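Request:
You are asked to prepare a plain-text protein record giving the amino acid sequence and the backbone structure tokens, at your earliest convenience.
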Amino acid sequence: MKQDKTFERIESLFDIQLLAPVKVLVAGCGSGGGSVALQLVMSGIRNFTLLDRDTLGPENVIRHVCGRRFIGSKKVDALMEILQDRNPNVNVKKIDTDIMNFPGIEEEIRSSDVVVLATDNEPSRYRINELCVKNEIPFVVGRVFTRGIGGEVFSYRPGLGCLACLESFLQRTTYREGIKEIDLVSDEEREKIYGMEVSEIKDSPGLVVDISFITSFHTRYVLDAVARRLKERPKYLHLIDENYLVWGNRPVHPFKKHFQLQRFTLDRQDSCAVCVAKGGGDV
């Protein structure tokens, strides 16, 4: 039998077999979730559950990992084929439905080692946040800012702050139809969090090269979450200290220069209703 050389070039960096049992739930298979899933399968992850209800349109392919031949296909079907092309031994479960109306979402989260949170609306993000906090399952969410000027990645680690803690800490307003606005923060808070001016940042897609920076950070944080749950950590996969990252692609307000990076460790916030509910009021 011919030896499988799929991961021959990275076996010296990763203990691929340690990742064999890992289960990843990808919630949202658009340009962000699809790219993260592809990077994960190329890192040795084999077991995926893909959750999305959308169909790939011609306007998607300029940023999506799935090309023109998949136009008209369900994103879960198209992405599964892309993952299987990179590793034919991958195991993929497809769920073609809306997250908010899917009664089995909690069970899917509970049976996963980590959730890739890549949906494009606040209700689904907060729903998954609540269920992950409840079941102590880590998730990583990535978001791209207006016109691809930058983005952010947040990694929920059980016991630390959740997505609701982050939103509360940054004093953000609620989302309106997928558009995010951040309230003006004090000079002290601004310096502590970003070291830059933050008056307003909105969710909006950018060029694929802009999105790629964020998806790379997103993927690395997912691997970090995986490593934290394994009995034996893959060699050279050093843990990341901070759980929140802000990245600026170019010097457009609020960023001051190209490739500006801010890192932050978010703890649980006393005012967070989600964490209070999980901890029975003892936060």
Notes: The beta strands are 23-27, 47-51, 91-95, 114-117, 139-144, 150-156, 244-248, 260-264. The chain is about 30% helix and 15% strand. Confidence is low (pLDDT under 50) at residues 172-187, 189-203.
